[in-house]
Design a protein that fits this description.
250 residues, alpha/beta, Spore Coat Polysaccharide Biosynthesis Protein SpsA, Chain A, 2 domains, 10-stranded mixed beta sheet, 39% helix
């Protein structure tokens, strides 16, 4: 049976987290899925762990990139290998509530019954520390996000997103030093219409360590280059950059 959703887990040297990520994906209830663990030329035991797990669940597949491509390239490889109508991304370290994908599919079905075809569905998320404790922040999911909303500060985490595969094939993730996720979401929403959100925080997202001052400058410069790369005017870029700074460079 062709799966409705292809779960794509990009991983590099992730032997510490890949088992939990695969378990989180395979534990989804009420949906027909396949899980593709995309190994981006890991140098640790990641490949062996994935292949051992494949023996316990036929829904899991191993995909390997030919060269190191980064998360963007690994996601693209997963999309190419996928067979589902939808693709959902799960980064190692993050975890899903067991009915995350079910709730997203139910919301999509409601929109489709009304004659609408959203390109993307996302959820809210709890932000966690590296030790698994709650960091005290919840990323909310508005009912609707357009490309314009992205420019004014809305955040869609990769591990919350479920996207029509046809959109991802037309607009692959950018492999560059820019904000690839932001570029991807913007292009899809600008060309296919607004995404829709499940308000509940159904993802536990492990936040990166707070950047040092020098890294903050690099992030700020990359954000500015991202806005200009998308063809925004200087005034639009300034509005988006101000929103980026208000978010604390997260």
């Amino acid at each position: 049976m062709v799966p409705d959703i292809s779960v794509i887990i990009p991983v590099y040297n992730g032997e510490r987290h890949i088992g939990d990520a695969v378990d989180s994906a395979l534990s989804q209830t009420g949906v027909n899925i396949e899980v593709l663990a995309v190994d981006d030329c890991s140098e640790d035991g990641t490949a062996d762990i994935i292949k051992n797990l494949m023996e316990t669940d036929e829904r899991l597949s191993y995909v390997s990139t030919l060269t190191r491509t980064g998360a963007a390239g690994a996601r693209n490889a997963g999309v190419e290998a996928a067979s589902g109508q939808w693709a959902a991304f799960l980064d190692p370290g993050d975890k899903w509530h067991t009915d995350k994908l079910f709730r997203q599919m139910e919301l999509i079905k409601q929109y489709e019954l009304g004659g609408k075809r959203p390109p993307m569905c996302y959820t809210g998320a709890y932000v966690m520390n590296g030790d698994g404790s709650f960091a005290g922040r919840v990323i909310k999911a508005p009912s609707r996000v357009s490309s314009h909303d992205l420019l004014t500060g809305e955040t869609i985490l990769a591990s919350t997103a479920m996207i029509r595969r046809e959109c991802l094939l037309e607009y692959p993730f950018e492999q560059s030093d820019l904000n690839g996720d932001y570029i991807e979401w913007y292009r899809i929403l600008a060309n296919y219409g607004a995404g829709v959100g499940v308000s509940l925080p159904l993802v536990r997202h492990v936040a990166a360590d707070s950047p040092k001052a020098s890294d903050k400058l690099k992030l700020a410069y990359a954000a500015w280059k991202t806005y200009k790369y998308l063809g925004l005017s200087t005034s639009q870029s300034l509005v988006s950059f101000a929103s980026f700074m208000r978010r604390g460079l997260v």
